Amino acid sequence: MKTLLVYPQYPDTFWSLKHALRIISKKAAFPPLGLLTVGAMLPGEWDKKLVDMNVTVLTDGDIKWADYVFISAMIVQRESVKDIVRRCKRLGAKIVAGGPLFTSEHEKFDEVDHLVLNEAEITLPPFLADLGQGHPKHIYKSEERPDITTTPFPLWSKLDASKYGTMSLQYSRGCPFDCEFCDIVVLNGRKVRTKSKKQLVGELDALYDAGWRAGVFFVDDNFVANRKKLNEEILPAIAEWQRARNHPFLLSTQASINLADDEQLMQLMVRAGFDTVFVGIESPNEESLAECNKRQNINRDLVASVKDIQKHGLQVQGGFIIGFDSDPVSVFRSQMKFVEQSGIVVAMVGLLNAPHGTKLYERLRREDRLLNQVSGDNTDCSMNFVPKMDRTTLVSGYRQVLTTIYSPKQYYARVKTFLKQYRPYKRQVVSRLRPWHIWAFLRAMWFLGITDTARWQYWRFLVSTVCVRPRSFPISMNFAIQGFHFRRVVRELIRVPVEDLPAWHREGGLS
Questions:
Q1: Considering the chain, what percentage of its residues have pLDDT values greater than 90?
Q2: Nearest CA-CA partner of 414 in 326, 341, 310, 319
Q3: Which among 255, 206, 202, 246 has a CA at the least distance from the CA of 226?
Q4: Could you tell me if 217 and 167 are in contact, meaning their C-beta atoms sit under 8 angstroms apart?
Q5: Residue 111 near residue 93, CB atoms below 8 Å
Q6: Coil, strand or helix: which one is 250?
Q7: Which of 13, 270, 383, 445 gets the most CB atoms within 10 Å of its CB?
Q8: CA-to-CA distance for 173 and 223, rounded, in angstroms?
Q9: pLDDT value for 430
Q10: E strands, 231-365, where?
Q11: Which strand (E) or helix (H) includes residue 78?
């Protein structure tokens, strides 16, 4: 059986890091981890080929070669998926599809031959069994949550890792919290399931043996959900693995703000090689946090929590949301003030959306406030419901937040604020200087120091870093390159006047 594993193209978004990747000569930020894992679940005797459209071109020849085309996608990849499906149908290729997009919107993809939804450990085996008997069904779905200690290692042999900025792996699924807007509990549930220590170390070995020596992102919904197991078993094992190999990986992940409450956990994370965590802050407005059931963020000094995490050697990347019913008009200034005071350099501020199946979606449906489908990109000025705040005020204020925090002056000042409170863990890291690092620095000098309109701010920042904090030079240059991407994204976002944006409308064209 010839199987083509296709990962659709991402649009240019906040997290695509497209403009930053161009500087460091990479094609994509992360590999298609889910698709590679599904590939490993397919029979070993099958002939498998991977096409990640973010790093290479999908040709008609690729599609004609395959007996089955397997597609996995996130919601933001919807338009690319539609194009792939059209091409496959035109060329007579059979399609098998799964992942978050299809699990959420399977009723919109009747032209797909076989929909394997929810978690593949449960739904893929019956599909393969039926396929082997010659009568596969159109749809396979299940609410059962699998034991992920049985999940195989991703099919790294099919990936050209040199095209990516960071590798990925997964230790756990699920999140114990129940935020109203979040679809994680819909897709992966609230019961946190984890892999075994032996399994996780094996996955690290697989990446190491494949020659990888750079960043690794743990894609967990909430890495610190089971703190006891992390403290007593997992983090000590990762730290020992890293020490034995001279610290080949810099690790990053996603965590809830209560990480700041566990001194031991923060210390163990940095010893294990973690240097970055993405934290959902959402809003400095407590009424908005209560509205969306973000209870872990309520009744605490969020700025102090962020600073505490960063003082332990973990850079906090923050997620922020604007558009809650409880948001006052002052929320725009409050969000900007929070980002500035906390020293969160990478702040993803988005407009609220209601993904299908979430509690927010159901509430808004009852209130008859739902509009068209979510785009999957919460920084594109779209919302799929009628907000309480006036549309023009909301979008204009949102744009002001982004243009302010990503203006060169504000951005570089925020990096300096971060560096003043950041205390990196002293370890010997084997991310030694490589030829591509030098090439990336030279390209950064060209893009940021010569062609960019913010070049004078860049040079002042570079000189200040060399003179005041020379040890912070690598991370400072990384921030500068990321900032270049964020400015480009924001510039495109504000190009269209608010009054010229497509009007928010209901599905089916209803006004």
A1: 91
A2: 341
A3: 255
A4: yes
A5: no
A6: strand
A7: 383
A8: 9
A9: 40
A10: 250-255, 274-282, 315-322, 347-351
A11: helix 78-90
- For the chain, give every domain's residue range: 2-20+32-140, 166-421
Burial 368-388 (b: 16+ CB within 10 A, else e): ebbbbbbbbbbbbbbbbbebe
Q: pLDDT at position 509, please?
A: 35
For residue 501, the model assigns a pLDDT of 65
Sign of CA dihedral 171, 174, 180, 181: positive
Give the mean model confidence (pLDDT) for residues 416-441: 75
Alpha-carbon dihedral 228, 176, 221, 249, rounded to 10 degrees: -10
Tell me the fold of 2-20+32-140: Rossmann fold (3.40.50)
Token duo for residue 472 = 């912070």
- Fold adopted by 166-421: TIM Barrel (3.20.20)
Residues 35-81: tens digit of each pLDDT: 999 999 999 999 999 999 999 999 999 999 999 999 999 999 999 99
Beta bridge partner(s), residue 47: 2
Q: Judging by DSSP bridges, how do beta strands 250-255 and 274-282 pair with one another?
A: parallel
**Mean pLDDT along residues 303-311:** 97
Tokens encoding 216: 């690794």
CB neighbourhood size of 298 (10 A): 12
pTM, 2 dp: 0.94
